[in-house]
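Lines hold sequence, tokenised fold; shown next:
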Amino acid sequence: MEHPGITASGSDHSEHRGSGDRGSDSGHGQHDKHAGHDPEMFRRRFWISLVLTVPLVATSHMVMDWFGYTLDFAGIDWVGPVLGSVVFFWGGWPFLQGAAREIRDRQPAMMLLIAMAITVAYSASMATSLGWFDLDFWWELAALVTIMLLGHWQEMKAIGQARGALAALAELVPDDAEHIGDDGSVTSVPLYDLVVDDVVLVRAGARVPADGEIVGGEAELDESMITGESRPVAKSVGDRVVAGTVSTDSSLRIRVTATGDDTALAGIQRMVADAQASSSRAQVLADRFAALLFYVATAAALLTMVLWSALGDVDSAVVKTVTVLVIACPHALGLAIPLVIAISTAVSAQAGILVKDRLALERMRTVDAVLFDKTGTLTQGAHVVTGVATEPGFDDAAALAVAGAVESESEHPLARAITTRALESGELRTASDFRTRAGRGVEADVDGVRYSVGGPALRKELGAQVPDGIAEDSASWESRGSAVLYLFALDRIVAAFALEDVVRPEAREAVDDLKAMGIRVVMITGDARQVAEAVGDELGLDQVIAEVLPEDKDRAVADLQARGLTVAMVGDGVNDAPALARADVGLAIGAGTDVALESAGVVLASSDPRSVTAVVRLSRATYSKMRQNLAWAAGYNVVAIPLAAGAFAWAGLDLSPAVGAVLMSLSTIVVALNAQLLRRVDLRPGHDAPTRGGHKSHPVGTISTLT
């Protein structure tokens, strides 16, 4: 589903899109060696190349000599040239294409190094098949291409896709809107037909199609996907509403004030796209090694050719030069990082941690500050009844039984909290003649008495005074940000209930572990300051940032980064998406929205904030394996290139093409086995964390800054 201004990346209507589309292809365009590539392309070429490589290896005279067997059949001499040519031109095409791009951009890296080696191997092997040389590299060529395809396939699988977040944003807006004509008739129209000043009908449970102002009706809107507010917000005539929010209990008439690119949701989309583009420009560490190795190999090859030619041994000059260029090809280097990433993502997935961005793990080890969203991240994101106060003649159980009966037919989150608590305390009473008082509460008959349940708006409407026996408790609840609902018998308050969002019991351990690692822990939320500070005091946070809008969260991340900090953001809502994308590492709670999941580099499927420390441990272990593999790959070339060039021939040390091929294979095996050691990292929540005593969590309230 695509809409003007909220169009999923990849749409053909580019002329209608906003600035957000600058980042739509950031996962590819900013990383030149993968421009136009996708995991499926590498996967397909890898498997086909692997199938072709098997007969090439089996019919190689070098391999037959090693294992002591003989194959001889009509046309065996054509296996190498035919299958080798297919592997080179078809399997190796992405590398040849990437090399041309790197030459054009004057930025030699992995692609050019790979292309140089396979081109030299192909040329030497073809010349040998034609009887010009004795340098048969057909099986090495095929193995090299196949291994490189495997490495790049694994790397591409780990690349985060910017398009998913933009598509998820588009899904928040309905395809059609119910337009109210001048004569009062209601007709369904495509979203793109809406213009400013149109009036639309939004029914209970439906999403708002465009930004606007309420001109008729009252309702409570679920704005959690935009503001992060965990409680529906009461709206009435004159209040503004945002596209993508949901009317929970009543119908509304809304005058459209913004459509397409001008909506708040489209603005968030642009921030997500821009942030993803800014975080995708990091260079892969292996490319820097490959660039250096390209210059070293080229210089070594030229020097080898010149020196051996000067010694009068032209045959040795050619053989050793070709050997240098082929051996310099990064078999191990090409797998050093992709294989580690592939294994670490598999290990993390088993622990409920989904790594989507190939660079997220590398960056997580350097994080200096972690920003947690409050609702649904450090807290449960669902209210519970935490306090009951009653008038004489009503005990807590009776008050809950009556209130639960009145609320039993309501789908409001606070109503469900009261009903759940009432059921836990005993059986509900029987209610009849249920009626919703839009934006204020509900009412019903219980035991022949008309009862109502609602908040301050209903109390004001009924003109009810809070009894002295209840006032002290309700004032205390309100001071800490609790939601307070009253039970009315006709127009008299007989009980009050405190409802609060509960801090996750494991949140304190997560905060303490991060602080023990030397990481600053900050909470950022759209909730009122007293609510946020209650959570901050409960968890011992380093800093609390409250009453922020979506763009403020994004700006807060950018401000911390401007101070030289490496920032990780943990959140679960649409309002967190720009900050998740802007952060050096975005971690989305798995129970969150699709937009948050797509914008983040890491998804914590368990919703356990302690998983953040597990990501840090995995990042450090992964980075260690990367360094070890890169050191091994680089060390192999430091030793192999001089030997291949004949630098130690005077001492009787020489490296033939056959031995060089064996060393290349061994180097690749060492890298692969070393990467497998990552599977020993234990990512269970709390594992390897400092032991701490128990900590009792206390619930905290939630107050919307928009009410």
